[in-house]
Automatic annotation (TrEMBL), chain A:
Pfam families: Img2
GO MF terms, alphabetically ordered: structural constituent of ribosome
Subcellular location: Mitochondrion
Family membership noted in the UniProt record: Belongs to the mitochondrion-specific ribosomal protein mL49 family.
Protein name: Large ribosomal subunit protein mL49
Taxonomic classification: Eukaryota, Metazoa, Ecdysozoa, Nematoda, Chromadorea
Entry keyword annotation includes Transferase: no
Keywords: Mitochondrion, Ribonucleoprotein, Ribosomal protein
GO cellular component labels: mitochondrial large ribosomal subunit
UniProt superkingdom: Eukaryota
InterPro entries: Ribosomal_mL49
Main location: mitochondrion
Coiled coil: none
Automatic annotation (TrEMBL), chain B:
GO cellular component: mitochondrial inner membrane; ribonucleoprotein complex; ribosome
Keywords for the protein's UniProt record, in alphabetical order: Mitochondrion, Ribonucleoprotein, Ribosomal protein
Any one Pfam family match given in the protein's UniProt record, by short name: Ribosomal_L4
This protein's name: Large ribosomal subunit protein uL4m
Localization per record: Mitochondrion
GO term, biological process aspect, one: translation
Main location: mitochondrion
Taxonomic lineage from the root: Eukaryota, Metazoa, Ecdysozoa, Nematoda, Chromadorea
């Protein structure tokens, strides 16, 4: 039954100008295995629409596109800006050390919270907050000395610090990041 | 013996003299147009007074002797970074490890053929109580805690580490005088392998040389030479990696490649947004599945 209907279908389609089942290859005398590349991928017929270019002001759309590279800082009227940001000044180049800004024009100060010893009274772990200063060029030890004296003067207690000269980093324990930021701004970095 | 030694000595002496002459000539010609041409404006050069701008000679590959065409400034963020060997090591380890796949799969007792029948009765035979001849205590039995592959060691290093690794490798190469800049490596006249051996010998390039160009197709003399000489290789800029930079004794960058490398690395260093980008399969899925779209295997025809 099924085969007879199939045969009907084939005979009906065969009399049409186009074959129903396959591409043009069946009509040709060429066998499939002679050029398998031709039959593996269906023939692509491209229909291109006619294109007309309309002048549109895309500047407002471009403004919404994501930023690829951190842009240069726009010119401000006065510093520090309302957010407290200041650009590096010429005074920063007079010291025996230099702190480079991050690519996004901020100071390279990173806050890190680490677990300290177990507090035996409360049986909770204490946490310490360490501030890392990165990208220190030149004499890192001089930078650390100046920073520590400034912090101890401001805070009134001693501050622990650690210098990694190869990486140009200083770690400070026991001082808030804002105070360290203030020190580097005052130095002109 | 003595003769050859004398020859070598004289050659070294000649080289020394010629080098000095060249350097003097370049110093004289700093104001001329040819040398000023190779000086360039560096994008977002760090303002730190402690960072010096590294420089490199630009030479030509047309002659055996090292003819210097001028000096070129290199970006200090890339060619004068802190020599972080640990970062370089992480990159090299990652490169060797991330592609490892263990395909071994030891069969368990369930996966071994047969063994469904109890080999002998549970009791009264004097033998061990066993349920299957594929039990792990049997020879030719299955494995209890075997290697169950496929197992992969794939991981991605953070972008920042990979970028910094490239910068460190380039810095080390430059610091060790193993980084050379040439004006052009495309369509060179001489493809004779003797010429290239002499060239590398005269310029003290060392055991192996890697040429890097902006374009991923190389033609001319260098293409012939790299066919003939196994220690001489060519690579496009997008193939640049820490392992190859360290593997080859000398790295020779073309002038275009230098520009391209600096541009790509600096855009990534100054990239907006977070540096630790997440690599999700869903984001890459379409690209991965379409990867073999235009591929035609030369030997295997497609299944019709």
């Amino acid at each position: 039954m099924l085969s007879s209907t199939m045969r009907c279908l084939i005979s009906r389609t065969a009399c049409r100008s186009q074959s129903y089942f396959s591409t043009s290859s069946v009509k040709n005398t060429e066998k499939i295995w002679e050029n398998p590349w031709k039959h593996a991928i269906p023939e692509k017929t491209k229909t291109f629409a006619t294109v007309e270019e309309v002048p549109v002001d895309w500047s407002f759309v471009e403004r919404l596109m994501p930023i690829e590279v951190v842009p240069d800082v726009p010119k401000h009227d006065s510093y520090p800006t309302p957010s407290g940001w200041t650009p590096p000044t010429a005074a920063g180049k007079t010291h025996s050390y230099y702190v480079r800004r991050r690519p996004d024009h901020l100071l390279p100060l990173y806050l890190e919270r680490k677990r300290d010893l177990l507090n035996e009274k409360t049986l909770d772990f204490d946490y310490v907050e360490l501030v890392t200063v990165r990208n220190v060029d030149g004499d890192v030890f001089a930078c650390e000395h100046d920073l520590r004296t400034y912090l101890e003067e401001q805070l009134g207690h001693s501050v622990a610090s650690h210098v990694d000269e190869l990486k140009g980093r200083i770690k400070v324990k026991g001082a808030p990041r804002s105070l360290i930021e203030q020190f580097f701004y005052s130095k002109g970095f | 013996m003595l003769n050859t030694f004398l020859q070598m000595l004289s050659r070294q002496f000649r080289l020394l003299i010629s080098n000095r002459a060249f350097s003097a000539a370049v110093q004289d010609a700093t104001s001329s147009t040819e040398v000023a041409d190779t000086r360039r404006e560096l994008w977002r050069k760090p303002e730190s007074p402690f960072v010096k701008t590294p420089q490199a000679w630009v030479s030509s590959l047309e002659t055996v002797e090292d003819e210097k065409l001028g000096l070129v400034d290199l970006h200090p963020d890339i060619f004068r970074t802190t020599p972080r060997i640990d970062i370089l090591h992480r990159n090299l380890t990652w490169q060797s490890v991330y592609r490892n796949v263990q395909m071994t799969k030891m069969l368990t007792k369930a996966e071994m053929p047969g063994g469904g029948r109890k080999p002998w009765p549970q009791k009264k035979t004097g033998r061990a109580h066993v349920g299957s001849i594929r039990a792990p205590q049997f020879i030719r039995g299955g494995f209890a805690n075997g290697v169950r592959g496929p197992r992969t060691w794939f991981y991605m290093l953070p972008d920042a580490i990979r970028i910094q690794g490239l910068c460190v490798a380039l810095t080390l190469k430059h610091a060790q005088d193993d980084l050379h800049i040439v004006d052009n490596i495309q369509n060179l006249q001489n493809g004779d392998s003797k010429f290239w051996i002499d060239l590398c010998e005269a310029r003290n390039y060392g055991y192996s040389v890697l040429f890097i160009d902006d374009c991923d197709e190389v033609s001319g003399g260098l293409a012939e030479a790299q066919q003939a000489l196994p220690w001489l290789n060519v690579m496009p800029v997008y193939g640049l990696n820490c392992f190859s930079l360290i593997k080859y004794d000398t790295v020779v960058l073309s002038r275009n490649a230098l520009d391209r490398i600096e541009e790509r690395l600096l855009t990534h260093i100054h990239r907006a947004g977070p540096m630790n980008k997440k690599y999700k399969y869903m984001d890459m899925k379409e690209k991965i599945l379409q990867e073999a779209e235009g591929e035609e295997h030369p030997l295997m025809p497609p299944v019709v």
